[in-house]
Input
Amino acid sequence: MTNILGRTGYEVSALGYGTMELGKLDEASAVKILNQTLDEGINYIDTSPEYAMAEYYIGKAIAGRRDEYVLATKCGDNMTGIGPYYIFDRKTILANIDESLRLMKTDHVDILQLHGVVPEYFKGDEFEDVLDCLRGIRDAGKALHLGLSVCNRAPGDFGFPAGHGYNSILRFAPYPDIEVIQIVYGAMTRLSEKVIQEAKDRYDTGVVARGSIKKYDPQVYTERLKVAKLYELCEEGESETDFLIRYTMSHPGVAVSLIGTKNVEHLIENAKVGRKEALSPEIYAEAKRRLNFVGSVAGDAELAWHKK
Output
């Protein structure tokens, strides 16, 4: 299954590979899983300077296959080890992109994203200043398209882990330079379900979903699955995890659903799901109905949006 990534025009696999866990591997294992990713037809690779050895491994493993994948990395990562994790100034952003290109052995990334931002991070004209820096990188050919990822922040924040994406996506989407926005979204984290579609319909934003099967709160995650009984909707041989991946992929406003793994066997199984078609309209609607019921029973902010 493939989609068009918003205004970038890239045809991307509905399932993308997130490299956060890649740095936990030794070099041989990382080279194997990255090549397997491309061999499985997954052509969207998301990374960051912050992800340990991930960019180095990408350069080591698949730089020679550069025309086979859309490469997205991030910037604003403070790699000095002193001060805050993220600094969105010109010095940091320029240092990030130059080092990323060096490590990944490429002359450009397809998408350069500000890493983990919310609108409140920028006062006055600060966001325009940041965009000006990013435009300069794009004009130099070091990044072809621009975007951002929205942060999770912490448990206790409204709608964690999806609340900040919900509050931010339609505030960033109107900027013409922001073509791609990455947020938390999935069947267990549905807060942004409607605003994702609005961003797609109004601005043709390329929405990248992450965390679609991550158990941010294992107890809540398990209880929601138990009440929703999604296993009753699974095809023969399909697991609930497979169904959750397909649920995210079935959202018409989501271009890419990122799944990260350091296990080749898990990657292969996920890729099989990624090659399937979206859920049928009937099954998708029934899954939503059941998940809405879960939200109604739970009475929690994260799923209360459907009552609006």
